[in-house]
């Protein structure tokens, strides 16, 4: 087939994916949400999340029709309240145990509880969010069984700790595949063919950048103190320990940590792209061209636009408070953190959430066909309350 003939062929069939997300509109929603959240001492945060999600869902169109988010703030509030009671019942006795002279045992129990509760929170959050997502009147759903997922994710989490993170990609691949292989659009099941080989290289590069200089620094300090770490609390001893060897180890640690952070960010972007590109829904295939460079540009732009205006606002309010006296100055001191948080939230939504989501949608493609006539409405049970554990501890849900 000649190049001219190939270029003249029609594009592969698929569903057009577009967005009408506007950073200014999302920033204004975030600003109002922040003020209401502060005025209600955090209670409004559940309704704030709902408003943000409704805006984002409604401004993402598939084949010309928008997504719909049908969740409510009260559902999130109810789920978080129940989860908070559970967390208090679990963690308060552990904290009492630590205060009673068993700090190591309490720390071990806390780590174990976090390992157990985090996958549970992710499980219930997935189930709730999909159950509140619709397109063309058809509801999405997640109906995976809890018990095998819980034990498998718990075991892989423990294995990741034991192996100092070497098996972490296997845990993440397992969880992503489990979530997607048990997710549905109506009666049509999603499928994922994600593998560790597609994401592992960058992760292990980040692991090496962090582990090698960290181990070198620990070994250098250990040999310099001859195992007596109490010397580290003595300033004179610390000065004598700052030899060229230890200084080099310290520099290596910081350089390695920076390289590790950079490569880990690259890994997270590649993981996101790999997860999207591994998905299929019947005859429809998902692919993503989201790049690390695009994510870095968005992140740098967001950092600049958040720090500079935010810093200028704090300086301006502080100068105004110093220029006046009496009740006006007191009011300025009180309002400064409120306005800073509200403006910061608005800037974050405007320069990070909106651009990142827009770029992700713009670089994601749906090819193939989806036979809507053969897809029925989901019959999976819908949870009556929100995301529970993730909302209660605010894991960015």
UniProtKB/TrEMBL annotation:
Keyword Aminoacyl-tRNA synthetase in record: no
Membrane-crossing residue ranges in chain numbering: 25-47, 76-98, 104-125, 202-225, 246-267, 295-321, 328-349
Listed Pfam families: DUF898
Source organism, top-level taxon: Bacteria
Keywords linked to the UniProt accession: Membrane, Transmembrane, Transmembrane helix
Protein name: DUF898 domain-containing protein
The species this protein was found in: Elstera cyanobacteriorum
